[in-house]
From TrEMBL:
NCBIfam families reported in the protein's UniProt record: recN (TIGR00634)
InterPro entries: DNA_recomb/repair_RecN (IPR004604), P-loop_NTPase (IPR027417), RecF/RecN/SMC_N (IPR003395)
Function of the molecule: May be involved in recombinational repair of damaged DNA.
Domain RecF/RecN/SMC N-terminal per the UniProt entry, residue ranges: 2-525
Any one GO biological process: DNA recombination
UniProt record similarity statement: Belongs to the RecN family.
Keyword DNA repair found: yes
Keywords: ATP-binding, Coiled coil, DNA damage, DNA repair, Nucleotide-binding
Gene transcribed to yield this protein: recN
Single GO molecular function: ATP binding
Protein name (Swiss-Prot/TrEMBL): DNA repair protein RecN
Amino acid sequence: MLVQLEIRNIALIDHVSIELAGGLNVLSGETGAGKSIIIDSINAILGGRVSKDIIRTGKEKAMVEAVFQVDAERVRDLLEGYGIEPEEDNTLVVSREFNIHGKSICRINGKMATVSMLRELGERIIDVHGQYDNQSLLRTENHIKLLDSFGGEHIEKLKLEYAQALQKYKSICNRIKELSGNSGERERRIDLLKYQIDEIRKAGLKIGEEEELNKQRLLLSNSEKVLGALSKAYELLYTGVDGSMSASDGINEAIQCISTVANLDVKYESISKKLEDLYYQLEDAAEEIRSERDKVEYNPELLESIDERIDLIFRLKKKYGQSIRDILEYCEKIEQELEEIISSEEIIKKLQSQMKEADNELYALSCKLNEERHKAAQILEDRIGNELDDLEMKKAKFKVDILFDQEPDSSRHRPYNSSGLNHVEFLISPNAGEPLKPLSKIASGGEMSRVMLAIKNILANVDSMPTLIFDEIDTGISGRAAQKVGEKLSYISKKHQVICVTHLAQIACMADSHYLIEKVSDDVSTETRVVKLEGKAVDNEIARILGGASISDTTLKYAKELLQNARKFKKSACI
């Protein structure tokens, strides 16, 4: 939803800030007051073309900024693609500044953007129906989505089944393509796989081997240090150094001394026993040290062998995985691939049989979708025809053109797409005698707006576009047709934010929020202002639209009557 629009230095506008609401927002004012400037400014935000001539006379640059409240999921992929962080409150701020030299600066949430990025984003959040071309209904690729949504739950269920079948079909096709390849590539792949398997298997790798090798290498490379430490410790504990007494001899002598007085007191006897225990533990430790010392030897050949083994593992890890486990798992994988390639002809035959079954399933679902779409199209054509009749386009004809394309492509596959085998396009003949043609070929802005209104009214519950803008929608209509247009706009505004520029009281009286666009002049300058109308000001504006600048009691009374009837209509069950 468009929450706020700020415009600076565009045409007659010096500075205008408009706060918009949900529901039906109506813009009215005298001819030439500047209503089109508002639409031009919105179009600029949507990435439309901007001429430097639109900049206010005497100013160097102009700026438009719009604040939107959006469904985060609707624009998430675009923002992520642009590298723009979405706001936590789902606010989207879009601005565009342009100067008299033709330069344009665009921003989305404060980050620099391109005009094409504004255009992509605009296509997700606003439709402008009138003289502009950024309408979602003009893009043919949207027509099948809208038809399917209109068709309801049954079509959506079929589409889900179809999507699953299509994924299965594509998976089989891709596997056949992988296995088929050309003979040269196949032989090269076999040679490569055999070489890799042979290299890994010859290495005889074992899980945990690398850790053990590194441990051995550490000991071997420090063998002199280990031998020295063990020898020194043994001497200190058992043999003594340079004729000095060893720890073992010292403890033994202490035992002898204490034993002479052990019978005098139990405390001395306890000390003697502790010393004896310590002596035996020391002897055990010394014996263990001696045993380990005798095992230590410096073996450069073994160290070299371990280094070579570690280097081999390192080279294999660079090629095939980050650990021995990864390498062995990779080897199992390519052994399986090699087996499949060697026996690929057999596998391809099985896959081709599966592909035929998958193709039959897909084709059957495509036929069902085609049938259901034709049923939905007939109902849609009838309903939109009735809408056009209400809007005084009694000779207009609306057609949903559905093509069922089952001709195989160069690889003899049916041209399945994400929606089946259908291509859907909405066609219109606005006047009697005119041929059916695409919506984009409607020449009149007023006709275009009314056709779009008719379609939007029928598709209001399934079309997810948040904001709709209708310009020139009242061209060439009055009376009952104008009232119908107002009612339909009011109906659509219950599901979407609607902004409408109008010169007709029957439409303006349906507004939930009414804005007056007025031109104010003095001796120095002329500028356009925007005022939100409330209470009696709304009555007076409806009366002005009805009777011109001079508001009589009769026009004011009629204006109040129109507004009262509009309020009743909006409260009725159909709204």
